[in-house]
Write a structure and sequence with these properties.
seven-stranded parallel beta sheet, 34% helix, binds 1,4-dihydronicotinamide adenine dinucleotide, 344 residues, alpha/beta, six-stranded mixed beta sheet
């Protein structure tokens, strides 16, 4: 099996080399992202391995099929960057549903604590021997209410962490988790009740048509003054312009963003020597109460190892058994074709 691995970073390679060699996969790493301009690189490969900011649109899927590529192996959980309707019946799409919910949930709490206790400011001040405490006043998390939108794997770990801090939880999910609501410290509520009752709001749902801009001007208007918005899920869950307006009007007290609506243009790359073209992102970053990390919530050694192992096992499992439990989009006649060897 020959795999074309797009958007390869140095930290991806050790784990993929290890598991790739173990399962006999030949992996060619491309630093470029997969998109309409780069899809030609996939010619001659059996599968492509892609990440969150690769573009797998209709054109890319058509070209992959023409080249005989049978599998799009996502090395992430979300698949909003794949045109699933177009992929259906044409190409297998596999994903890694969970690699470390702890990595993302812990990063979310790290950003929250950094923000509200001004650690990002203190770090810079003390390096300059400025030991003043002016402007460093934070607030206790204990007794505060956190609104959690999406109570899946990551959302539930984040809830556990918040409960450890003595926080109350208002949860919202389209499909509620059995046994989570205890009628007291953790309660499922409507979105409107979550907005109006939360001191902090954290997003842990996927990006879908329904959740697109779930935090918009209307939502922010319903929130408490000083609300802290945390987004470690997908950028387009938050209307960045509305968030900026909320920060400027002091309605939003702070924002911690590991993801950004237009992040594909910038995240994972070094733009330190350039003028940032995105005015909204530049303005958000300039705010003292906004912390931005560049989609790094997943980035722990544990998660990278789990990602590589599951991605490789997904591909090998599909080839050997004709099915894969982490398949999110089927290729027509896949089981029979795969077993008879016609699939590859
Ligand atoms: P999951 O599938 O376990 O949980 C997602 C939850 O969202 C489910 O409970 C689901 O019912 C709920 N949901 C679906 N539609 C909804 C809606 N319309 N409104 C409210 N809730 C809805 O997913 P997991 O593993 O917890 O991941 C959550 C998200 O985190 C992923 O979709 C992905 O976008 C993001 N993520 C971010 C990473 C990062 O590095 N920043 C890494 C991994 C995931």
């Amino acid at each position: 099996m020959r795999i074309a691995f797009f958007d390869a970073k140095p930290y991806d390679k050790p784990s993929f080399d290890k598991y790739g060699a173990e399962y006999g996969l030949e992996i060619k790493y491309f630093e470029t992202k997969l998109n309409e301009d780069t899809v030609e690189l996939a010619s001659g490969y059996d599968a492509v391995c892609v990440f969150v900011n690769d573009t797998v649109n209709a054109h890319v899927i058509d070209r992959l099929c023409e080249f005989g590529v049978k599998i799009v192996a996502l090395r992430c959980a979300g698949f909003n960057n794949v045109d699933m309707k177009h992929a259906f019946g044409r190409i297998h799409v596999l994903r890694v549903p969970a690699y470390s919910p702890y990595a993302v949930a812990e990063h979310t709490m790290a950003m929250l604590l950094t923000s509200i206790r001004r650690i990002h400011k203190a770090y810079i001040r003390t390096r300059d021997f400025n030991f003043s405490l002016a402007g460093m006043t934070g607030f206790d998390l204990h007794g505060k209410t956190v609104g959690v939108i999406g109570t899946g794997r990551i959302g539930r770990v984040f809830i556990d962490i918040c409960r450890g801090f003595g926080m109350k939880v208002l949860a919202y999910d389209k499909y509620q988790a059995q046994g989570l609501d205890n009628g007291d410290t953790i309660r499922y509520v409507s979105l409107d009740e979550l907005f109006s009752g939360s001191d902090i709001i954290s997003l842990h749902c996927p990006l879908t048509e329904e959740t697109y801009h779930v935090i918009d001007e209307n939502a922010i208007a319903k929130c408490k003054r000083g609300v802290v918005i945390l987004n470690t899920s997908r950028g387009a869950l938050v209307d960045a312009e509305a968030l900026l307006a909320g920060i400027k009007s002091r309605k939003v007290g702070a924002a911690c963003l590991d993801v950004y609506e237009e992040e594909a243009e910038f995240f994972f790359e070094d733009f330190s020597g350039h003028i940032l073209e995105d005015d909204t992102l530049a303005r958000l970053i300039s705010m003292p109460n906004v912390i931005v990390t560049s989609h790094q919530a997943f980035l722990t050694e544990d998660a990278l190892s789990n990602i590589a192992q599951t991605t490789v096992e997904n591909i090998v499992g599909l080839v050997n058994n004709g099915q894969c439990e982490n398949e999110v989009c089927f290729r027509r006649g896949q089981a029979e074709d795969c077993k008879s060897g016609k699939c590859f």
